[in-house]
Amino acid sequence: MAMAEHQLELFPRATAEQIEKTKRLLEEYQSCARICAAFEEEGIETLCETERASYNKSTSKVKRIRRAVKLIFDREIREIIEYRYLQENTYTDTIQQFTKAMDDRTVDRKLNKGIEAVAESLILF
């Protein structure tokens, strides 16, 4: 029975450790985006080996995060994650922004569900 249940699972569930790692990755998003922008402004072709490695690593993180956020099915959850992490707003600002339409505990739950959804998407790629 356990084997049959395991085979039916199309999308793996993220572990608590993977969710925590994803939260840290989301918090790094703006730094990575700034690194990419700075290097692109200077000209990618002029980068030394170390700078190119940093640029490539940051670009990869930014693309993976954007892709995973786009894959969040629930529009409200996706908007909350975009507002909090991609637009670099604080947790408090995020709660205040979305409590106009829902309870603060609901915003917090949706924020956590969004982080979990990103973690589960990152498992896939």
TrEMBL record:
<protein>
    <recommendedName>
        <fullName>ArpU family transcriptional regulator</fullName>
    </recommendedName>
</protein>
